[in-house]
Structure formats: C-alpha cells, structure tokens
User: Which sequence fits this backbone?
C-alpha cells in the first residue's frame, strides 16, 4: 500500500426546465481502501431518466462492491433495462472507475464520452480493450496510477454543450482537454475541477442546458494529515494531556476558540498574538501562536465552516468566497476541504460560562452538534476522520 489516495468530486446540472437530473453518480468506499465510482446517464431527461440512471448506478455499485463480476453486473442491467424500441439505444449508459490499493485504476465504459486522463498537465491516450457483454460493447482499461493523475468522466451533456450556440457540432473532446489540462497542475481539488468544467459547459449552453450534464473528477494525491483542536477539556487536569496528544500528531495544527488558544499558548510557552483586522465583519479576527498553523475564534467561525461544507457537497457556489478570503472560516475551509485527507479532531467538553447566557443562541449542545455535522460533511467529502473527546 502506498501513501496515495483518491480525491473524488462531481457536479451535475439539470436539463433546462427540468426538476430532476437524468444523470446519477454513486461513490462506494470499500473496507479494503478501494474506491468505486459509477456515473450513469439515463435516456432523455426528467423523472424517467432520473429513475433509469439511479437504478443503473445503484445496481452496478452494489453488485461490484459485493465482489460480483462485471459480466454479472452488465447482464443484470441488460435484463433490467432493455434497449429502447423507438430509438434503438440503451435506456442508460454508464462509466465505472475502480481504484484498487490507490495504485491501479480499472476503467469500464459503455456509451458515455470516453474518460480523459491528464498526467503531468498533458492528455494520456490509454489502451482500451473491446468486449461484448449482454449485447453491449464495453471498453475496459487497466492503468497503473501515478501521483497527480486526474481522471475526468462525464455524461454526453458535456460534449453536446454549445451545439447551435457556440459550436456547430458541440464541444469537441480535444477542446475539452485543451480547456481543462492547464488547470490540472494548479492543485485544485477534484470537486473544484469538476465545478470549473461544468461551469464552462453551462456557459456554452448560454445558461440553458439542452441536456443533463455531469462531470466527475478523480485526483490521485498524497495523504495529508491535519489536526483541529476545538474547546478546552471538561477536566482542567486533562489540559496538558490534550495538548500533548494534539501537538504530537503529524501535519498542520488548527486551534479554534479563545480559551483553547490561551491554554495552547501556555502549554507551548509562546505568546498569543491577536489580530485586530476584521476581514469579515461577521467572523471574529484570527490570532497567532508560534508553532500553530492557524488560530481562530470558536463556535461562530466553525459554524461558518459548516455552512461552507454543506454548500461544497451541494452546488459549491460558495467556493468564490472561501477560496479567496482571509477570515478564519475561509482559511479553515481551505485547509480542511482542499489540503487535508486525514483529519484528527480534538474536542473539549468543557462548558463555556459565557455560552450559558439565555440571550445567546450558543450552548454546549450546539457546539457538539457543530462537530457532529462538520465531521459528517467531511466524511462525505472522502476524508478520513477521527474524533477524540476530552
């Protein structure tokens, strides 16, 4: 096993005027550390397409995660979703990417646009073998992975972008590669890369997509540990123990909360230097302690990070805010969402007397709920999370 991991992110846009998306993506994390991504594109758009794509992705992801062969999966799909008698095409197309031991990628493609692989900023034409399963022409590939390899899989709503508007025959594959390849060496997350590519698709449709469009990016990267300390321990005698464990961990260190940062300052024997600059009038200023990567206020700041995390998992519309701003919440968001792969939370259970004011909307249960919701969001982003309470 190497020190690599798969960063997976995707975004979809509905056909203009439709309430539901006809594309569906499933991501399954195996107990052995493998990752399985299935992107299905249902025929047409709207409710029918949404049901077909969801059925397809769920059947494939469930069967393959249980160890069944591709042949069994495709034959089940063929039996469940037959060829459309009117159009003569499959009711749902699909793309499968399976990452094994973070060292090998298996690609299985049926009738979706071919997967794009960007390595060292350039397109890689990988080998494909053709196979007939259940009357369907399937392309299979097996690729040895390298750090910073980035895969892009998409539904046909992406290359169809711009037909009759920006282009006569849609957005050609080579033009998509030309657009996305220069951005792959910047260090963007998979979610951000998929967002950038899909935003361009929407622009080419003149903001009125003529088809459902989905982009899923998979970025192979090194694991990056991160540590976040939030709140003092319930027992004052545990302060040194908590601090010792926190600072012994590999990776960057983030401290949230005034009392918590004061305890850390005393433990390190370094002064706590507050900043008086309000970068965001709603978020308290950050501070600094030598030996700590980031020091922020507690509940208000973490609550804003949670808002960004929920949006990140949805449409990622807040990216333009937290990706550029220098307030505490934005800085934490960049560290947790973009840099970290493994995050250790050290959470103190002490009750802050200031939070017991009935006029304040902050209390102990809200603080614990923030931790629960934020860690849940980070797990959905594919992060490995460990929470220790004191």
Assistant:
């Amino acid at each position: 096993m190497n020190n690599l991991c798969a960063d997976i992110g995707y975004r979809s846009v509905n056909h203009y005027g439709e309430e539901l998306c006809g594309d569906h993506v499933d991501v399954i994390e195996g107990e052995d550390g493998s990752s399985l991504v299935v992107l299905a594109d249902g025929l047409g758009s709207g409710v029918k397409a949404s049901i077909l794509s969801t059925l397809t992705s769920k059947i494939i992801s469930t069967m393959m995660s249980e160890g069944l062969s591709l042949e069994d999966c495709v034959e089940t799909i063929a039996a469940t979703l037959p060829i459309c008698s009117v159009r003569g095409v499959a009711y749902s197309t699909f793309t499968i990417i399976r990452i094994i031991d973070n060292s090998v990628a298996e690609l299985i493609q049926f009738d979706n646009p071919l997967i794009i692989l960007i390595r060292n900023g350039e397109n890689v034409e990988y080998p494909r073998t053709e196979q007939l399963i259940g009357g369907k022409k399937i392309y299979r590939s097996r690729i040895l992975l390298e750090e910073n390899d980035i895969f892009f899989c998409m539904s046909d709503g992406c290359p169809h972008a711009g037909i009759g508007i920006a282009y006569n025959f849609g957005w050609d594959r080579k033009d998509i590669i030309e657009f996305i390849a220069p951005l792959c060496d910047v260090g963007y997350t998979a979610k951000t890369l998929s967002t950038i590519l899909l935003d361009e698709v929407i622009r080419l449709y003149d903001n009125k997509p003529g088809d459902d469009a989905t982009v899923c990016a998979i970025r192979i990267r090194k694991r990056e540990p991160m540590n976040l300390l939030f709140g003092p321990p319930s027992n004052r005698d545990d302060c040194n123990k908590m601090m010792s464990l926190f600072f012994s961990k590999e990776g960057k260190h983030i401290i949230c909360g005034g009392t918590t940062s004061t305890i850390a300052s005393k433990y390190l024997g370094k002064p706590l230097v507050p900043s008086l600059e309000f970068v965001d009038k709603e978020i308290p200023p950050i501070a600094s302690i030598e030996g700590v990567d980031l020091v922020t206020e507690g509940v208000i700041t973490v609550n804003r990070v949670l808002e960004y995390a929920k949006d990140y998992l949805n449409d990622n519309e807040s990216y333009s805010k937290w990706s550029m701003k220098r307030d505490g919440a934005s800085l934490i968001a960049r560290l947790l969402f973009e840099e970290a792969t493994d995050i250790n939370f050290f959470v103190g259970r002490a009750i802050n007397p200031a939070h017991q004011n009935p006029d304040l909307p902050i209390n102990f249960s809200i603080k614990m709920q923030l931790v629960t919701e934020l860690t849940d969001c980070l797990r959905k982003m594919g992060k490995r999370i460990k929470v220790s309470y004191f």
Observations:
- The chain has ten helices and 18 strands.
- The longest strand covers residues 4-13.
- The chain has a mean pLDDT of 89.
